[in-house]
Write a structure and sequence with these properties.
Distance between the termini: 52 Å
Largest sheet: 6 strands, antiparallel
Radius of gyration: 28 Å
Keywords: Coiled coil
Number of domains: 3
Number of helices: 14
Shape: elongated
Coiled coil: 142-169
Helix content: 55-70%
Structural class: alpha+beta
Strand content: 15-25%
Order of helices and strands: HHHHHHHHHHEEHEEEEEHEHEEH
Number of strands: 10
C-alpha cells in the first residue's frame, strides 16, 4: 500500500481534526448534520433514534405495499391470460368461425367485447400501478436512508475506536515532521516544518497509509465506466434518459456508492479504516458527467480540504452513451444519476 499520507500534508492539520463546521458547512441534509456533530456525545443516540424511526415507517408501509403488489400481480396475470386468448385467436380462426356460424356479426361482436374488456383491465392496471409506485418509492427511499445511517453509525463507532487507540499510544517524544516522513512529493515543504505530531494524528496517519493510500479504486471505477458504460447505465426506450445506477456500480466495485437527490456518498471499509466521501455529479464543460467530492471523513474525522481536492471520482463522457453527443442535463435521483439528452426534452 502506498505511503501517501494526507494527515501530514499541511501544517494546519490539527485544525482539520477539530471537525470545524466550515469544512463541511456546504454538506447539507440530515447526513451532513450527523457528520458535522460527530464530536457531540449525543449524536450517536440521535442517529439510533432516526434508524428506529426509519425502520418503524418501513414496517408500517410494508403491508400496504405487499397488498398492492399482490393485487397488481393478480390482475396482471388475469389480463395476460385474456391477452393470450386474444392473440391466439388470429384471422384464420375468425374466418373459420364465420364459415361455421354463418354469422360474422356475432364473431366481430364477441371480438369487440373481448377488446373492450381487455382495455378496461389495462386501465385498471395502470391505475393500480400509479398507486403502487409512490408507495414503493417512499419505501425504497427509506431503505436507502437506513443503509446510509448504518454507514454513518459505523463511521462514528470507528471514531470512538480510534480515539481509544490514540489514547493507548500515550505521550511520545517530540519528533519533527521530517523524522516521521518517508521521502515523498511534499518532503521539500515539510522539512522546514518542525511540528510535533500528537498520538491521534499519528494513529490516523497509520490507518490511512496502511488501508487507503492513493485510493486507486476511484480511478479503476472510472476506467470501468468509460470502457463499458452499458454495464452500468440503463435506458428504457430510445427516447428515455440514461440512468447510471448505484447498484450496478456497486456490483463491480470494492467501493459502495449511495446516490441521493442531494449528494453521492462513497464508502469503503478496509481493515481499521472507515472512509466516507461526499460529493455530487455534475455536467462538465468537457461534455462529461463527473463525480466531484466536497468533503471526506476517515473514522469520523474530517479529511483536510487539500486531500479531498486530490481525490477524483468517475467521469462519464456523454458521447460514449449518446452517439453524436449534443447537449444534455444531469440530475441526481435516489439510486441513480439521470443523464437526459436535451433533444428529447424539446419533443
Amino acid at each position: 500500500m502506498s505511503r501517501w499520507s494526507p494527515w501530514r500534508t499541511a501544517a494546519c492539520l490539527l485544525a482539520g481534526l477539530l471537525v470545524t463546521t466550515t469544512v463541511y458547512g456546504h454538506v447539507s441534509g440530515v447526513f451532513g448534520d450527523y457528520l458535522a456533530g460527530s464530536h457531540d456525545a449525543g449524536v450517536t443516540q440521535r442517529l439510533l433514534d432516526d434508524l428506529a424511526a426509519s425502520k418503524d415507517e418501513m414496517e408500517r408501509l410494508t403491508p400496504q405495499l405487499n397488498d398492492l403488489q399482490q393485487e397488481f400481480d393478480r390482475k396482471a396475470e388475469a389480463a395476460q391470460d385474456k391477452l393470450g386468448v386474444y392473440q391466439a385467436v388470429g384471422m384464420d380462426t375468425y374466418l373459420q368461425f364465420m364459415l361455421e356460424t354463418g354469422n360474422p356479426v356475432d364473431v366481430l361482436t364477441n371480438r369487440r367485447l373481448l377488446e373492450h374488456e381487455l382495455e378496461g383491465d389495462l386501465r385498471s392496471l395502470e391505475a393500480l400501478y400509479a398507486e403502487y409506485m409512490p408507495v414503493k418509492a417512499v419505501r425504497d427511499s427509506l431503505a436507502n436512508h437506513e443503509k446510509l445511517l448504518q454507514v454513518l453509525r459505523g463511521n462514528l463507532e470507528a471514531r470512538e475506536r480510534t480515539l481509544k487507540e490514540a489514547e493507548a499510544l500515550g505521550p511520545e517524544p517530540p519528533k519533527s515532521w521530517a523524522e516521521r516522513l518517508d521521502i515523498g512529493e511534499w518532503i521539500g515543504a515539510l522539512l522546514t516544518e518542525e511540528k510535533e505530531i500528537d498520538p491521534l494524528t499519528h494513529r490516523l496517519d497509520e490507518i490511512w497509509s496502511a488501508h487507503i493510500g492513493y485510493l486507486l479504486e476511484l480511478k479503476e471505477d472510472g476506467e470501468r465506466l468509460r470502457e463499458n458504460p452499458a454495464a452500468f447505465v440503463t435506458r428504457k426506450t430510445a427516447s428515455s434518459p440514461y440512468r447510471l445506477e448505484d447498484r450496478l456500480l456497486n456490483a463491480s466495485s470494492p467501493l459502495t456508492y449511495y446516490m441521493f437527490t442531494d449528494h453521492v456518498y462513497v464508502h469503503l471499509v478496509r481493515g481499521s479504516a472507515d472512509l466516507l466521501l461526499i460529493g455530487t455529479v455534475q455536467k462538465k464543460e468537457a461534455g462529461t458527467a463527473a463525480l466531484g467530492f466536497e468533503a471526506g471523513f476517515l473514522n469520523g474525522f474530517v479529511l483536510p480540504e487539500e486531500v479531498v481536492g486530490r481525490l477524483a471520482g468517475f467521469e462519464l463522457p456523454y458521447a460514449a452513451l449518446h452517439p453524436g453527443g449534443g447537449e444534455f442535463y444531469v440530475e441526481q435521483e435516489n439510486g441513480a444519476v439521470v443523464i437526459q439528452p436535451a433533444e428529447f426534452l424539446k419533443e
